[in-house]
Amino acid sequence: MMADAIGNKIANGDDGSEIIDRILNAGRKLGYETEVYFVTGKGINLELKGKLIGEACGSETWAMGVRVIKDGRIGCSSTNSPSRWEDCLNSAIAGSKFSDMQEWGGMAKPSKPAVSSLNVFDKNIADCDIATAKELIERMLSAAEGKGAEIAGGSGSLSVGTTTVANTEGVCYSLEKTGCGVSMETIDGTSTGYEFDSSGFLKDLDPERVGREACEMAVFSKNGGDIATGKYDVILSPLSVCQLLSAVVIPSLSGRNVHSKRSYLEGKLGECVFDEKLSLYDNPFEGESARLYDAEGVPTKRIDFVKDGVVEAFAYDLRTAYRYGEKSTGSAVRAGAGGAPVIGTHNICLDGKRENIFDEKAVFATGIVGAHTANGVTGDFSVELSNASWMNAGVKENPIKSAMLSGNIFDMLKNLSGISKESRDFGSGVIPYLRFSELSVIGR
């Protein structure tokens, strides 16, 4: 189902449109700019206990966030009870009276999106049928059979949801999306493995790969050897790269962090901060987080944050843009209906000159532990390597029992050894393998 065909549902009286209209009309009469962020959905989730499905849980979601603004004072409130909409609106108004006044240029106004439609709906998922979720689990278990690892747990899920953003300026945008996912945890002795996959479409989900690779990871990592502390060439998997980007680099691109001097990139707009091989952009029209409008009703667009190593843009929502004399980049996101929108990204893509980075021997990290402890301003970090090994000619060999990696993510991205031809799609990002030279590895 195309997104531009879905928006008519709210006009036909479905999906809370009556409540939305009441809130907007009531807020308008009281002299407040008013915005409603409305979420409905359902899902099914199956949890593995060993090889058995230990729990099947169905869920339905109804949640709503209200934001009001008057004289530069902003108030927010949320509820998951339809009958409490008046209380929700009054709570937002009460909160606004205690907030600080700030520069404000008005809520988003109706405007055309950058593209006409999105394909984000799979009718094969929409019913959230337990039999379909069970089949995903069974396919994953079948692929894991005979691989030598014990299955510790896992999951399979289906979901469908509709998100609507509407305001007193006339914005009314609704998008219905589907999602599915699988994961598996395995163990062999003291060695563990974990793999996952997610997509908006059943046909793109690969439960067999998840089951197979989760087992192979645990078996391969068993009886790992030591590595001496020193400087090594290191290849980070797409997952490892994604973890470091999410912890340090993406927050540094927030206009709010830049202007409040909480970003390494403050004052570096237009400068070549990264390796010239590297580009980083947000493409909101693909992936599981795809959308035509952001959480405030501003049209989304591709944002080239870094191009050929040069910092070209930062991300803004309306509030930050008005405060610092910028324009919103359509980067407002919400974790749910509760709270105010914040600056985020939709589908981060790391790209650049692609080449074979696997020919020469290097330390390989499947994942990392502790990325959240990295210094978000300086980029300094020290993390544990997960399921690490040596890699030679593209083949993993000689697992490494225990190792730490320390360094500075900005220095690393300034001196890349190479970007792989292969990438992994995480639904909210498309990330390749990256190779670095002379990184500090702490062993035994």
- The assembly state of the depicted protein chains is single chain
**Low-confidence regions:** 1-14
**Rg, nearest Å:** 24 Å
The N- and C-terminal alpha carbons lie at a distance of 55 Å
Please tally the helical runs, counting DSSP H or I stretches of 4 or more residues.
10
- The percent range for strand residues is 35-45%
Question: How helical, in percent, are the residues?
Answer: 10-25%
Shape: globular
List how many beta strands DSSP finds.
22
Structural class by SSE content: alpha+beta
Q: Summarize the main sheet.
A: 14 strands, mixed
Number of domains: 2
Mean pLDDT: 94
Would you mind describing this structure in some detail?
This protein is of the alpha+beta class and 444 residues long. The chain has 2 domains: 3-214, PmbA/TldD superfamily (PmbA/TldD fold), CATH 3.30.2290.10; 224-444, no CATH class. Helices cover 22% and strands 38% of the residues. The strands form 3 sheets. Strands 7, 8, 9, 10, 13, 14, 15, 16, 17, 18, 19, 20, 21 and 22 form a 14-stranded mixed β-sheet that branches. α5 runs parallel beside α6 (207-221).
Entry keywords:
444 residues, alpha+beta, PmbA/TldD fold, 6-stranded antiparallel beta sheet, disordered N terminus
Short description:
The protein is of the alpha+beta class. The chain has ten helices and 22 strands.
Write the layout of secondary structure elements.
Elements: H1 3-6, H2 8-11, H3 17-29, E1 33-49, E2 52-70, E3 73-79, H4 85-96, H5 130-144, E4 150-167, E5 172-188, E6 191-199, H6 207-221, E7 230-236, H7 238-252, H8 255-259, E8 278-282, E9 303-307, E10 310-311, H9 318-324, E11 332-333, E12 342-343, E13 348-352, E14 354-355, E15 362-365, E16 367-369, E17 380-386, E18 389-392, E19 395-399, E20 404-408, H10 409-414, E21 416-425, E22 429-442
Parallel strand pairs: 7-15, 13-22, 14-21
Antiparallel strand pairs: 1-2, 1-4, 2-3, 4-5, 5-6, 7-22, 8-9, 8-13, 9-10, 11-12, 15-18, 16-17, 17-20, 18-19, 20-22, 21-22
Helix pairs in contact: 5-6
